[in-house]
Amino acid sequence: MLFLVVALFLLGLLCGTAAHVPLPVTLASAAVICAWIALFVLRERRRTHRHKS
After folding, report:
1. Overall average pLDDT of the 30-49 stretch
2. Can you tell me the distance from the alpha carbon of 2 to that of 11, in angstroms, rounded to the nearest whole number?
């Protein structure tokens, strides 16, 4: 999943709106998106473990 995020980020950097904003803004938004995905994965794993027990 992380590979997919990185691939989409690079694609956006090369040909999307990320090419029109400063690099620090792009990196900050990428960090926020990665944190959001990481929190989602952790919550889903906890929810899955609770239902299996």
Report:
1. 90
2. 14
